[in-house]
Predict the structure of Enoyl-CoA hydratase.
Amino acid sequence: MATSSIRVDDEGGIAVVTLQHGKANTLDTEFCQELSVKLEDVQLGGYRGVVLTGTGGIFSAGVDLRRVRDGGAGYIEDFLPALSDAFLSVFGFPGPVVAAVNGHAIAGGAVLAAACDRRILADGPSRIGITELLVGVPFPLAALEILRSGFGADVLAELAFLGETHLPPDALRLGLVNEVTEPGNVVARAVEVARKLAEIPAAAYAHTKAQLHRPFHERIAEHRTGDDAHVLELWSSPEALAAIKAYVDRVLRGAG
């Protein structure tokens, strides 16, 4: 189990929240719970906005599939609710949240980026995409609704079914990110954007954000209980667990 640490730095009233978890900022139960708590602390701390970023060349590679493979159905039962709650803690944050996508944002990493109000992507080899179906598992409802909100319904089916990952020019063209900038500038630019958004009166910003997100929150509230139960069943099935094991053995074996 990778040691998780989420660092919060104050950049003139903007909280820069840096994900630090193993080599790829993968999402496991404890890390998801920590992210939810950290964002609560940031909200209570009176920050005017948030920048969410990763470390090294990876924003987040998504779900820690090794933990899923090793933990099986018992682990998945605790993990999936924590994963959805972490996504919703970003999506539901009332103030401005800007993703400084410093590197690859894959699967759950792309959902985290989609949950932010704006996305700044580092130029270069960074890829963004949602690969869940290639692994053999469906999306939790909260993740899919956040993707629908962030990336738009028109492109979502193509992203989900094909599972392709996109380099910065295509990510910008498809509307997966708002800007592409030099890798060394990605956090500074995200702070600049967050600071600009934070000039809007906080109550007005929060209300408008809630209005924009309302259809997605309403669908999650109405359908999450039943859908989560079905997604848990599908993730925990022998077929899915075998597919995850095969994916880890085939794709991740050399990834450290």
Remarks:
- The chain has one domain: 4-197.
- The beta strands are 4-11, 14-21, 49-53, 58-60, 97-101, 104-106, 118-122, 128-129, 179-181.
- The radius of gyration is 17 Å.
